[in-house]
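Hey,

Quick one before I head out. I ran the complex with S-adenosylmethionine overnight. Inputs first:
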Amino acid sequence: MADMDISGSASSEGFASVGLFSSLASYLERGIGTVEGWLSPTTASILAQLLVEQVRAGLRGDVCEIGVHHGRLFMVLANAQAPGERAVAVDVFGHQEKNVDRSGRGDRAVFERNLGRYAPAATVEIVQESSLDLQRLGFLSHRFRFISIDGGHTAPTVANDLRLAERTLLGGGIVALDDILSSHWTGVLTGLAAYVGAGGTLVPFALVPNKLLLTTDAAAAGQGRALLRRLFPLALAKPDLEFLSGTVDSYDDHPHYDRETCGNLHRALDALRGERDALASQLAQVREEAARLQREHDALASRVAAAEAHATRLQASTSWRVTGPLRTVVGLARGRG
Ligand SMILES: C[S@@+](CC[C@H](N)C(=O)[O-])C[C@H]1O[C@@H](n2cnc3c(N)ncnc32)[C@H](O)[C@@H]1O
């Protein structure tokens, strides 16, 4: 079980990441910062962990995002697939005239480039449509375990997307609704109120940075809350806040769960290791040169020693002594000259 843990849990096993979801961990640590979009680091970790826990619990189904922009959040979904699952990306992309409130601006080419870079092994279905047309196009035949709603932010669009989610979500599945408390996008809260007022059955259970998490029923909501409290204790800001007709736990961003910062640290560490290796190889070269110079020095020293020994032997020899007077005469003659 531990090999699926990609959490930022405060326990010692936090940040462990191997096996099936290693590409997810690597995207969170090294990719997410390069993809333009709106997704806080703590929220990214929370969504990733929820997706992994679903697989761990045996829940299988497709995953979906309405409104992908360049794919910052979608790459999390695409890297959390279990075998046989699909990740469905819905965006108007080039038909920006259908993006009535100008929320983001999907770019299919950039999105597909990011997919190739960060989720090359994922099974992805791209639906280039407005979410308002999805029901007519047979979208209700899907069965999802996770849906991110981040397309149009007007109240009618949000209510429409929540209805679609309710009708396609598997029991225990999760919906993440973006910009729920943003003062710039009040259509989201208005759309949620309209959806609930019209009898919508999804149950909110947590507010994470910039998103509301909902699920299918009260039991699943209780499980979701317990799971987040266990895995993200440092980010829990306020438990049991009243929200519509129920309660939610509220989570803030917390640096401990920022896997991108962790990735940045890895990068900085890699750079330092590179510098260390370069310095080590320079040091090895300098040592080699020093050893060569030492050898040269030793050779010269032994030649000098040999010459000195030769001179000493010469001075001590009989012929040296015999020719002594002659050298004295020559010396005196030179002195006079
Ligand atoms: C805020 S951005 C999405 C950000 C993205 N989730 C991320 O992770 O960065 C909103 C996206 O929704 C798309 N969009 C707007 N209205 C839509 C609609 N009615 N149906 C589908 N997509 C829509 C926009 O083209 C844009 O790409």
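DSSP finds ten helices and nine strands in the chain.

Talk tomorrow,
K.
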